[in-house]
Design goal:
Elements lengths: L2 H8 L4 H23 L4 H18 L5 H31 L1 H6 L6 H22 L2 H14 L15 H10 L7 H23 L1 H13 L5 H17 L2 H19 L3 H14 L9 H10 L3 H30 L12 H8 L5 H10 L4 H15 L10 H35 L1 H13 L3 H15 L5 H11 L1 H6 L4 H13 L9 H10 L3 H11 L1 H12 L10 H23 L8 H15 L3 H29 L1
Helix pairs in contact: 2-3, 2-9, 2-19, 3-4, 3-9, 3-19, 4-6, 6-7, 6-8, 6-19, 7-19, 9-14, 9-18, 9-19, 10-11, 10-16, 11-12, 11-13, 11-15, 12-13, 12-25, 13-15, 13-25, 13-26, 14-22, 14-24, 15-27, 15-28, 17-18, 19-22, 20-21, 21-22, 21-24, 22-24, 24-27, 25-26, 28-29, 29-30
């Protein structure tokens, strides 16, 4: 971005727009300060974080003269009032922190009204930033907390007064200011700011150019570049929609130009961007939540996620290759390919902050501290070349874009805190777990299927982190109770929550891709579900046997699980496309599906049977092609 473009970005702002920029800069500065000097007490850190997010949400509607004119005087006044009141009810915790602690959560009359207002503002801010689904769910849970004595059977509880509910939500550690908001206010905001600085310096384009240079000489190169680039960029952004809007602006037009259909181009980008949340070492916000919920270190979670992420992208890479072969898509012309050497010479230095982050994580530093120094490294490295300088204007824009990116995460986490507060208060979590066990009849596969369905439904329209925290709180204990390894159970929920981004009817990543591809979002979501089939199937296998996660097994078992998982994933890609070396008939397609199931199953005997069947099917394909070629000659 040039200096002129930087300047142009602020020409349309009014006083509210400039105040909003101030909120973003303060939020970024506060987050970086606490990352270096140490996190403040939970209530102070989270209250300050959410208060500033409220300002960003409500001022977004009146930040330019045109927005202000569209809103009208009354709605503009309402936005200002909501901002002031929202910040006030949050900052109350900061001013009276010691007094609240001394009372051990006892609610005063003033705090009752403050808590009531805080709950309503959280719901309104969430509605404005991510829509109605999670808001409606939170309202249902609030009604349930009050009218619990009227509920039937297992769902019944004694019912709680409004005062007790507000005390739980506003002063309790498991309400609005619970673990989800804590993760947003510490880990996620730092990762988002790091990603924003990389993007402003041009690192995102460098990643896409590297991916295109590496894959462009093969058939379907732009789609493969999308897969590689989105997996790399997803490590930084950590959210599917942000990833689509970043890499998709480059990859989708290039895919369409290369011959891919619009809906296929959008689906490839949506699936690739969604999977970026799986890709270690950074992963998405849900991984930080998982570390907090399970007590398992972030390093162990990232290590366990490596092989499932590899399988995910191997399958997607194979799917787009087979799509290119099946559709007769040619390789890119040489003049359309960026030079890998020139790309690295021009912007390779921008990527060096990633090894800094990874090294510090591996060396035992906290995610926040590692993110801080990666952020500093990204800024300093940008000054190596004049064209990549992060000027003060660009740094300001990075703070604003980082703050924009944290809005849906923070509001969703605060709203999820309302739901979790009710679950904790009423004991619904234990009851829900018992319900899952009862409905499944004690059958693990049925319980896993119910969990995935619940994740897809609860995750509609939500960021992955919010969907994960809801289902993990309700269902993961049931899976653990039925014998699933703790980490495997939470990774299963994580995968299931992530898939709501591409699953109809509310597929946020597909909707984002549809705008760029100019295609029907439902058609994109349908293709995305096909292309992302590995993420629907592989979690069932690691829930039964966590060898693919590298948990409590030998290195030989890990290698075996890795090899068979990749082979199984390739078979799934063949099934999805109905093509190997040629078009498959129905029997061959079923055969490859059986092969995938056998090699993915955690037993070396089924692996051997699956490999034999797969080899036979490949042999038949090659034999038929040679025969057809000979007859044609």
């Amino acid at each position: 971005m040039t200096h002129q473009e930087d300047a142009a970005d602020t020409t349309e702002l009014n006083i509210f727009g400039y105040i909003r920029i101030g909120f973003a800069i303060v939020l970024a500065g506060f987050s970086l300060y606490t990352a270096f000097f140490g996190v403040m007490p939970d209530m102070i850190q989270r209250s300050f974080h959410l208060g500033l997010v409220f300002g960003l949400v409500f001022f977004s509607a009146i930040s330019s003269p045109r927005d202000l004119a569209n809103q009208g005087r009354l709605l503009a006044v309402l936005a200002v009032v909501l901002t002031i009141v929202g910040m006030g009810v949050m900052f109350y915790h900061i001013v009276y922190f010691s007094d609240i602690n001394d009372r051990f959560g006892e609610l005063t009359e003033l705090e009752f009204y403050l808590g009531l207002v805080a709950t309503l503002i959280v719901l309104e801010a969430t509605r404005r930033s991510i829509g109605w689904p999670i808001v409606i769910l939170a309202i249902i849970f609030l009604v349930y907390a009050y009218y619990g004595s009227y509920m039937p059977g297992l769902a019944a509880h004694r019912g709680y007064s409004v005062e007790r509910i507000i005390s739980q939500l506003y002063l309790g550690g498991s309400g609005i200011f619970g673990t989800p908001l804590g993760v947003s206010a510490t880990f996620v905001i730092l990762i988002v700011l790091f990603g924003a600085v990389l993007e402003r310096s041009g690192a995102g384009k460098v990643l896409m150019d590297v991916a295109t240079a590496l894959t462009g000489r093969s058939r379907g190169g732009p789609a493969k570049a999308s897969v590689v680039g989105s997996s790399l960029m997803g490590m930084i952004s950590g959210t599917a929609v942000a990833n689509v809007l970043t890499t998709g602006t480059i990859s989708i037009p290039l895919m369409k130009k290369n011959g891919y259909r619009s809906e296929v181009s959008g689906a490839v980008e949506a699936v690739a961007s969604t999977g970026g949340q799986l890709m270690p070492p950074v992963m998405g916000a849900a991984a930080f939540l998982m570390a907090d919920l399970t007590g398992i270190s972030y390093f162990e979670i990232a290590r366990a996620a490596i092989m499932p992420a590899v399988v995910y992208y191997v399958v997607l890479f194979a799917v787009v290759h087979l799509e290119a072969v099946k559709s007769g898509i040619d390789v890119l012309a040489m003049d359309e390919l960026p030079s890998l050497r020139e790309t690295m010479m021009r912007g390779g230095h921008l990527l060096l902050s990633l090894p800094v982050f990874v090294y510090m994580l591996f060396d035992g530093y906290s995610v926040m501290y590692s993110s801080f120094w990666a952020f500093v490294a990204a800024v300093l490295l940008s000054y190596i070349r004049r064209s990549t300088w992060l000027t003060p204007a660009k740094l300001m824009k990075a703070a604003v874009s980082g703050a924009e990116a944290i809005i849906p995460v923070a509001t969703a986490c605060a709203c999820a805190g309302i739901i979790i507060g009710v679950i904790t208060l009423t004991g619904l979590g234990l009851k829900f777990s018992s319900l899952v066990v009862t409905l499944s009849g004690g059958n693990l596969f049925a319980a896993l299927l119910l969990t995935m369905i619940a994740s897809l439904i609860l995750g509609m329209g939500l960021p992955t982190a919010a969907a994960y925290i809801l289902v993990a709180t309700l269902v993961a204990p049931a899976l653990v109770q039925m014998g699933v390894n703790l980490l495997a159970a939470h990774l299963f929920v994580f995968y299931s929550a992530m898939l709501s981004s591409i699953t109809p009817p509310v597929a946020l990543a597909a909707y984002a891709a549809a705008g760029l591809a100019k295609a029907n979002p439902f058609s994109i979501a349908k293709h995305a579900c096909q292309f992302g089939i590995a993420a629907f199937i592989v979690p069932f296998f690691f829930a039964y046997s966590p060898a693919i996660l590298g948990i409590d097994v030998s290195y030989v078992a890990i290698v075996q699980a890795a090899v068979t998982s990749i082979i199984g994933g390739l078979c799934l890609a063949i099934v999805v496309q109905g093509w190997a070396f040629r078009s498959l008939n129905f029997v061959e397609r079923i055969g490859f599906l059986i092969t995938a199931g056998l090699v993915l199953a955690p037993d070396w005997k089924t692996d051997i049977i699956g490999l034999l069947i797969g080899s036979l099917l490949i042999g038949i394909q090659i034999f038929v092609i040679k025969k057809q070629t000979g007859e044609a000659a």
